[in-house]
Design goal:
- Helices cover about 40% and strands about 15% of the residues.
- It has about 400 residues and is an alpha/beta fold.
- The strands form three sheets. A six-stranded parallel β-sheet has the order 3-4-2-1-5-6, sandwiched between helices. A six-stranded parallel β-sheet has the order 9-8-7-13-14-15, sandwiched between helices. A three-stranded antiparallel β-sheet has the order 11-10-12.
- A hairpin with an 8-residue loop joins strand 10 and strand 11 (about 285-290).
- The chain is elongated.
- The relative contact order is 0.13.
- It binds 3-phosphoglyceric acid (3PG) and magnesium ion.
- The site of magnesium ion has 2 residues, from loops.
């Protein structure tokens, strides 16, 4: 891989130079208050930003937040993120109230050496996510005008062929930031020659989101443990009734086919926690998977499943985990996710947690982050990396 790194850029000297950093500051926000509920992605770019500040660069940070539709939308403003980033850096962050407009131009022009600016949400501009090369290119031109060099530290967005990820590096000298390098280094261990047994735990709600990664992983893993909302489509494929649980009907045949080809590598839940409704205070019980009542829905895996999955994890030498086992945000349905997370920390294995949700679950459950080998900031990005897909953001750095 011929990717230049932040250290290469620092060695050239960046004092007084404008360095445009693409970060993934797409943090979860509280639906009611708009407060940042997990600042992990902000903390993850501090090593890169700190090094640039220390070296006296003018640091211009850009990011997306959520999925606004190409126009300003206050609920997706990066304003609160600028505040938090400033607290973590210990210095004010100059916030531009637009991305490439008058405020951005003035903010960048006024920046002193060693200061940090944050531009407003990239996705307030249609050019950022446009499928049209020319439209993306025009927006990339405007962004690139703010920098003398470009650093990609937005690992969570490297799978997006977006202007700030794919087109800007074609216009500026470009390097990979510390976070992107670390993520690629860790994930390449999993795609290379992982120490065995290699056990993967997948959860989350949709089989259709995970299908490609399941296909790609089946030949390489020793065991694939499936929980979360997506397990019900697999259980259905085994001929079981799943009540009103999440079910992707059009994926049942695909799941059956995967199970047939899996050579016994796939482990499914043997018991689940079923509830009357999708609500934190819903009445609930644990039942065997062959006894799910027709009017109830599964919201977590049960204790026997946790025990079985934990036994498989205790043998592992390499573990990758993506996706919660249940609705961990509701305490009544958090035990499965907690149990699996704890089993991973106890295993004598190199463990990687992939994904926004699983990483947030680790922190929300109060688990010690340092007891995992690596917590990826990328959900979709880490899965696409493991699938062996070309990631536009990485490819752009290679050129
Ligand atoms: C993520 O949260 O997975 C990344 O920030 C990418 O966001 P996106 O899925 O909206 O492109
Ligand atoms: Mg995503």
């Amino acid at each position: 891989m011929s990717i230049r790194t932040l250290d290469d850029l620092l060695a050239e000297g960046v004092s007084g130079r404008r360095v445009l950093v693409r970060a993934d500051l797409n943090v979860p926000l509280d639906k009611q208050t708009g407060a940042i509920t997990d600042d992990g992605r902000i903390r993850a770019v501090l090593p890169t930003l700190g090094a640039l500040v220390e070296a006296g660069a003018k640091v211009i940070v850009c990011s997306h937040l959520g999925r606004p539709k190409g126009a300003p939308d206050p609920q997706f403003s990066l304003g609160p993120v600028a505040g938090r980033l400033g607290e973590l850096l210990g210095a004010p962050v100059h916030f531009a109230t637009d991305t490439v407009g008058e405020s951005a131009r003035a903010t960048v022009a006024d920046l002193a050496d060693g200061q940090v600016a944050l531009l407003e949400n990239l996705r307030f501009n249609a050019g950022e996510t446009s499928k049209d090369e020319a439209e993306r290119g025009a927006f990339a031109d405007q962004l690139a005008a703010f920098g003398d060099a470009y650093v990609d530290d937005a690992f969570g967005a490297v799978h997006r062929k977006h202007a700030s990820v794919f087109d800007v590096p074609a216009r500026l000298p470009h390097v990979a930031g510390r976070l992107v390098l670390r993520e690629v280094e860790v994930l390449s261990k999993l795609t290379g020659a992982p120490e065995r047994p290699y056990v993967v735990v997948l959860g989350g709600s949709k089989v259709s989101d995970k299908l490609a990664v399941i296909e790609a992983l089946l030949p390489t893993v020793d065991r694939l443990l499936i929980g979360g909302g997506m397990c019900f489509t697999f259980l259905k494929a085994q001929g079981l009734e799943v009540g009103t649980s999440l079910l992707e009907k059009d994926m049942v045949d695909t799941c059956r086919n995967l199970l047939e080809r899996a050579d016994g590598k796939i482990m499914l839940p043997v018991d689940v926690v079923v509830a009357d409704a999708f609500a934190p205070d819903a009445a609930h019980d644990t039942v065997r998977v062959d006894g799910i009542p027709s009017h109830r829905l599964g919201l977590d895996v049960g204790p026997e499943t946790v025990a079985g999955f934990s036994a498989a994890l205790s043998q592992a030498k390499t573990i990758f985990w993506n996706g919660p086992m249940g609705v961990f945000e509701m305490p009544a349905f958090a035990a499965g996710t907690r149990g699996i997370a704890e089993a991973i920390t106890k295993a004598d294995a190199f463990s990687v947690v992939g994904g926004g949700d699983s990483a947030a679950a680790v922190r929300a459950l109060g688990l010690d982050e340092s007891s995992f080998g690596h917590i990826s900031t990328g959900g979709g990005a880490s899965l696409e990396y493991l699938e062996g897909k070309t990631l536009p953001g990485i490819a752009a750095l290679e050129n």
